[in-house]
Amino acid sequence: MDHSSGAAQPDPRRYEKIEKEEKELYLDKYLNVAFGLDQISGAFQEEVPSYAMSPAIGPIGGYATGRLNALESEFHDGKYVAPVEEAVRHRELHPDTVDKQLGFLSVDICGATALRKADNDQFDRAYDILLRELGTLVGLFNGAILKTTGDGYIAYIDHPSFTNLCDGIIDLGLCTLKLLHESVNPALLKHNLPEIDIRIGADYGEARVKKYYIAATGFSSTEIASDALNRAVKIETACERNEFRIGRCLYELIHVGWLERAEEVGFDGHSVGLEGYQTYKMR
Fold first, then answer.
1. Segments making up each domain of the chain, as ranges
2. How much is the pLDDT for 266?
3. In the list 15, 38, 60, 67, which could disulfide-bond 10, CB 3.0-4.6 Å?
4. For strand 198-214 and strand 243-247, is the pairing parallel, antiparallel, or unpaired?
5. SS3 state at 26
6. How many angstroms separate the CA atoms of 250 and 103, rounded?
7. Alpha-carbon distance 195 to 188, whole Å?
8. Which pTM does this prediction carry?
């Protein structure tokens, strides 16, 4: 809602006033759905809990410069320099009878197999730095690492406010690319380690946390059953190098500032079981 004129009005960046059957409606230009002003205002007047969530860092450019300086210091004397900002501690997801609503971010290194083959030791060192720096960023955005994949990782954000959560996933994805290009890769290249390109996919939806046991062997494993997680991974595999794409379920829940930076792109959903699913490149 736009409050600049005193009375609350639909944000003109998102809503266009139209008339239909002699009724004044506001068309959501991004979702192509029309609402009456009373419906839009009523949604904001409902008594619902208010939640706040913001990253622990300021502008990503300043943070990236600080991390580049920290990496230079580490290459010089071998001592890790932690960021002054405090990331949330890692936390595990626990089995629950109620499904969660989570935002997932899938990050994968492009050409990891070739990089390992070229020089396994150099790749391992570069990957250690990348995983530490980007994984720290996840914690600074109130997220956690679900698992590493050998050439990337899957992260998630769990928060009671879906609007904050979804905006946070977008912000995290874009800042991940910024940190890679302005901090991690410049440090790697300066010290003759391989430059790394990544792909990022994200989506939002239900997730069920389940624990499996094999009594005879003592094996146990906690797993996430989630179409949203599967979509995030499949969307990531369709990305170009250093590209961040999101799925429609996430797109529908983000604020207009992020919608303005989203561009629909072609997606061969049939080949991965997502027939007709829309995806968007974030700029």
1. 1-48, 49-282
2. 92
3. 15
4. parallel
5. strand
6. 8
7. 6
8. 0.92
